[in-house]
Amino acid sequence: MIDIPPVWLVGFLIAAWVVGQAAPIDAGWLIEWIGRALVLLGFVITVLAILEFRRARTTVIPRETPSAIVTSGIFGLSRNPIYLADAVILTGFSLWWQAALALPLVPVFMWLIQTGFIRQEEAGLFAEFPSEANTYFSNVRRWI
Known about the structure:
The protein has helices at 5-22, 29-56, 81-96, 105-128, 130-139. The protein is mainly alpha-helical. It has one domain (28-139).
């Protein structure tokens, strides 16, 4: 239960906050507001994705067996909008907290999510819905 993406996001957010406390870089109020906007955007993307999961009546929980492949709404832009939203939220908080030195954590987080979760989830989708998954994977990019 600990090895779920939200826990990883919280861990990376704590690391970004610590970096911001230890070595703040005041890039100005505009960068802080861009960070806040990115955090808000990330939460909006997450809500949109969860609504699509609910409409499809399938699980939003990683490593559970899906009952449908979701391709509508925000999933037409990204195969992994919640993980994309997590990366946007991490970027946003790093800017908001004046933790620019923490920005390299974003690609590390994305790599971890891709290797630890996305590849397994995509393999599961392909196993459950081979034809639909193949078409979807060839038409929609993993991140954006």
